[in-house]
Amino acid sequence: ALMGGVLGLGVAFGALKALASLGAGSLPGQAAVELDGTALIFAAIVSVATGILFGLAPAIMAPQLRVVEALKEGYRGVHGAGGLGTQQRLVVGQVALSLILLIASGLLMKSFMRLQQEELGFQPQGVLTASLRLPQVSYGEDRHPYLFYQGALERVNALPGVDAAGVVTALPVVGGFGPWNYAHAEGRPPPTQADRRGLVRRVVSPDYFETMGIPLLRGRTFQNSDGVDGPRLAIISRRTADEFFPGEDPIGRSVVYPWNPPVHFEVIGIVGDVRLGPLQMDTRPTIYWSATQSGRLSMSMVVRTAGDPSALTSAFRSAIGEVDPNVPVQSIQPMTAIVSASLAQNRFRTILLGAFAVVAVLLAALGLYGVLAQMVARRTQEIGVRMALGADRSSILGWVVRRGMVLAAVGLAIGALGAALVTQAIRGMLFGVQPIDVVTYGVTVTVLGLVALAAALIPAWRASRVDPVECLRSE
């Protein structure tokens, strides 16, 4: 047990090295995970406790051994197999726990694959992003913030390899569902408090939708000529159109914010729905305001390039500095990296639980192999007698395999029932997958059953190769 604990610490040290690459530094508290004194003490306690616990059972049974009967000829071959009962029950438990882990990891893996295939509503490939915050002392009522962003967009658009550029108050996927306000459609009475609808709002520049690859479904996008003195304009998402104007044409209609006094935003276009928050959460009704009419000090710039967006980093910083060197450029990274980071926790727990499941399956296979190998070793003389009396090798092979598969079948049945209960606890981690998924259950049971069969075949093959003459000579 102590040797196993030392080996386990070595494996843990290597696993921690892989942990950083799996989490990509995006997991909270990841930096605090290390092999410190507490981990070493824990490993030592577990190792010693394991040795004591699993040494107690045979140690207690040893004084009860009937020495005379044990020395009788043939005892070991016929009656000695009864001592395998405890080991068989442990193997059944191993198989059951392995199946629970395997099913849970299978559900998370299927959920993760569904998340990766989920429509984002935009095209992240080839887009560079950066966060900009204007100093409040330089931009305010006397100088509209969009004057800076308009100049910055002109400089960035002039860079080689840039196809389009825009700004937005919060990037998709990581921006979440705020800020938002209650609103209602023009021409309808304000809804009651129970029926109020919230609208997520984003402030964007005219070329934002083109830059992000968000499709324009109807109407038009914003223009630089949409000034502060003109009517307030808005572009709404498809879901907003369906919920606020069901069966109607929203173009030319207004979305009303019940403020004091009420504020009307004329709808000039409809765009596709975009994943604003975590991918496992549904889209929300969204309204877009024009940056030319609603100045914001803090915005994110998005730049679509023809090549690798990371190669534009240096030139992008220089272009912003030429417009105003006092504006810091922060969090500059490709949009694909942001999307990947949003999946980091799902990816990490899927891989981690999958690794635990693989280890558990290997332990179950080793346990089953060990029990059957010990049974064959104890009953070698009995097997020789059976073969001397006419049993062929195939019957001996089937006899040992059946013993192993009975243990595996009992473990699989218990594990399937346990998984049906345990997987309810991870319901909130699943996306597009039910806790009881017939395909996942079927595949995992089949895989573990095949592993158990492989583990049983090796001692069964050895049993079938027993030489009856040698066994009878030893008798």
Plain-language structure description:
With 475 residues, this protein is an alpha+beta fold. It contains 15 helices and eleven strands. The chain has helices at residues 2-23, 37-61, 67-71, 75-78, 85-117, 145-157, 208-212, 238-244, 313-323, 335-342, 344-378, 380-388, 393-422, 438-464, 468-474, and strands at 127-133, 162-168, 180-185, 197-204, 216-219, 233-237, 254-257, 263-271, 286-290, 298-305, 329-334. The strands form two sheets. The chain has a six-stranded mixed barrel with strand order 3-4-9-6-8-7. Strands 2-10-1-11 form a four-stranded antiparallel sheet. Helix 5 crosses helix 13 (393-422), helix 6 (145-157) packs across helix 9 and helix 12 crosses helix 15 (468-474). The longest helix is centred in the C-terminal third of the chain and has 35 residues, at 344-378. The two termini are 36 Å apart. Residues 73-82 have low confidence and may be disordered.
